Amino acid sequence: MRTVIASILVAALVVLLGGFAVIYAGLYDVAATEPHSPVTSWLLETARTRSIKAHAAGIQTPPGLDDPAKVIIGVEHYAAHCAVCHGAPGVPNGDIAHGLYPQPPNLSEAAKRYSPGELFWILKNGIKMSGMPAWSDHSDAELWSTVAFLKRLPGMSEQEYAGLVMASMAHGGHDHAGDHDSATPSTHDTSHNQQ
Ligand code: HEC
Asked: How far is CA 129 from CA 44, 119, 166, in A?
């Protein structure tokens, strides 16, 4: 029994030292052009999903998240800060997103997998070792409005999105003038930016 335990410990030590040697020798490729191995992908994805669920567990969703006024504020925030990486219905993502690894996912799909509290946590804290920034300098009210928009995003058509963007401009609710150019649908971007 003792020899079995000793052999397992020695084997574990060899694996650990081997891993350390590979990293220290610079053999691990950090290039964004080189995809992760399936094992690394699984580890990172599982760590991300479990961490988000655990950290967001106590977050209470404020009432009235489906209020259309919140969605309008949210779409303004999304068009100004998020569409450049994540795209939007009828809006391709910008140049900065193309070389990112991991790639910013299409949120029409991703928003379905998370609860409002989890989405809020992601927006406020960002995701380590990816291009996803923390938006902790934005107000909680603004972030909840963005969550309200994300919850409406699955299945949203180009026309619906363009309509919301125009409604947000008519509402005059944006204080980030100039940020919109890359994020507004191409058919509507020029005439509505000059207010
Ligand atoms: C600079 C590019 C960039 C910007 C800007 C950005 N994101 Fe992200 N985002 C990413 C990347 C890259 C990921 C993927 C992270 C990962 O896979 O670990 C991500 C992941 C996410 C996720 C989790 C998706 C999933 O499948 O788990 C959500 C939700 C999200 N972003 C929402 C937003 C919102 C809302 C905004 C605007 C307030 C925003 N992002 C702005 C790059 C960006």
From this structure: 10, 18, 35
